[in-house]
């Protein structure tokens, strides 16, 4: 990468760092900006060149869309600060995402994971499975964020604020947990990052933090009578559309749906003993005659 391009990327990343509170966002923006600059000149890249570059990597749809979003952001910044006159990524289409629900952690596997985990990891699991916290939110929990009556103050994506109520079990765990300040301090100072939280839970239990969050969202939705707005506020989503992706359809839901969709027996629907239309018509006529008598 030339010195000019390196300087541009450094300026851009300094802007992203000022704009975003998320270390994950900064990591993703840095990755794709540096990746593009190694192959193309951001000052002169055309729409066709950017599209060809994106398609040349054989990324999965989610990675393709992450790359496209990052490049749009980079070029938008360049236009804003006079580094180029246009944004060549604006009109590029996102990859179509396959319809897929995220994994949801089961009650039994959560219980087993909690029992075999040390107390700090057990608290992490409860914060994900019961409170619906993202891994980055778990990482930043501070003692000062927890009130005496059991409320936890959370600052989520985009600086959005919410409060969640801690379960009795979680409050008991916190009562015997010796740490002060950051709940999960980093050895070098400050708090652990989201990746460290993910790795800790994954290593000890085999679960991932997002499957815990999916469990929390689905359970809240079910136990509040299907109230999507409550689930939205609980998970800290900007729109109920995003929350809907976290609300899983369970087998119980599908069983109830199947029963609701059954044909009405009173309409004379034929059973396994009826082998012809004529027999079905005779049975219906007999039923009608019997009713009339």
Short key terms for the protein model shown above:
mainly alpha, DNA polymerase, domain 1, hpI Integrase, Chain A, 3 domains, two-stranded antiparallel ribbon, 14 helices, 56% helix
The run of helices and strands is HHHHHHHEEHHHHHHH
Overall structural class, as computed from helix and strand content, comes to mainly alpha
Per CATH, the class of the largest domain reads: Mainly Alpha
What spatial order of strands do you see in the largest sheet? Answer: 1-2
Main pleated-sheet profile: 2 strands, antiparallel
User: How large is the share of residues in beta strands?
Assistant: under 5%
Shape call: flat
**CATH architecture identity of the largest domain:** Orthogonal Bundle
Percent range for helical residues?
55-70%
CATH-level-4 superfamily name of the largest domain: Intergrase catalytic core
Would you write up a description of this structure?
The chain has 293 residues and is mainly α. The chain folds into three domains: 3-80, DNA polymerase, domain 1; 107-244, hpI Integrase, Chain A, CATH 1.10.443; 268-293, no CATH class. The chain has helices at 3-19, 23-39, 47-55, 61-80, 107-115, 119-129, 135-139, 168-175, 194-205, 209-223, 228-235, 240-244, 251-261, 277-292; strands spanning 151-155, 161-165. A hairpin with a 5-residue loop joins strand 1 and strand 2 (161-165). Helix 1 packs antiparallel against helix 2 (23-39), helix 2 (23-39) packs across helix 4 and helix 5 (107-115) packs antiparallel against helix 6. The longest helix has 20 residues, at 61-80. It is flat, with a radius of gyration of 27 Å. The model has no long low-confidence stretch (mean pLDDT 86).
